[in-house]
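User: Structure please.
Assistant: Input sequence and predicted structure:
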Amino acid sequence: MVRKATLNDIPALFAMARNTVIAMHAKGIDQWSSEYPGNADFTQDIERSDGYVWDNGTVHGYFALVETDPHYKGIAWRESSGIAVHRLMTDPSVQRTGVAKAMMLAIIDEAKKRHRDAVWIDTHPANDAMRALLFHFGFKERGFIDAIYRIAYERPTFKNPPQSILIFGNSGVGKTTLSKQLSAKLGIPYVHLDSLYWQENWQSTPRDQFIQTVNEYLSTHDAFVMDGNYLTSGTLKPRLAHTEMLIFLDYPTQVALNGIKKREKEYSGQARSDMADGCIEKIDQEFLTYVLNFNHTRRPSILGILQENQETHHTLRFATRNALHTFLESL
């Protein structure tokens, strides 16, 4: 569990810091030194009520939450308010056991309690383990701090969760499942573009009619989760204009293939509840070709959409289901 650190924790924190520095230096990372972080740093954190430990009977993790950091003033943060994380570490003996993840979830939760819009953190460019953790949690690079040779990262807390979301991704990766999960968590409706496009017995909706249907939905719903790609359907621009968050489930092709096989087995000989009558679940050669080629033909376009809209939308790309689950936990 995460709790406030006390002065009694300092011997354990000093020992953990030395173990962490030794492990860092063994990997060629000179982010910290034999003197930093030291007893004076931990004492200052604790006396300011900034220090926290992960304690499951033994102290195995630590971080400090700092209200202001002068090094962060020159960074182009997207969010207007944030809290800075310093001296985040886990003892090398418990790395990859979930301690770092639990502490980061606690950090996000505490930032929300303090009504902060974001969590801000920095790390050394060579600290691949920390950078992987930050990517897993959806942190974005916001600049470089020359004075301390660190990359600055930001992650929104979503203390006011987005109310309009688009979900992109290959067939079978779980777009519909995610729509339902977000709908339940946020209390907003979900809609599948497939259900608006496909009519009875897999008859496609004419382009102009489909555009009109989507526009009518957008004009009558301020809040929604909408899944589906339809990049060249004429509906992408209005969908982007009505949306706060873009999510891309960027999974390997095999994940998509496994998903559609599971879906076909579950709905064998029948249509899904969100589809029109006669739209029986099936896998044919055309559909398989679409799935197999998706990451080559459509993935670059979706990555471009996220890149082009990152300043106006919250853009999230998940490369693993674990990263997605972590995001859902943090909402």
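Residues 164-330 form a domain with the Rossmann fold fold (CATH 3.40.50.300).
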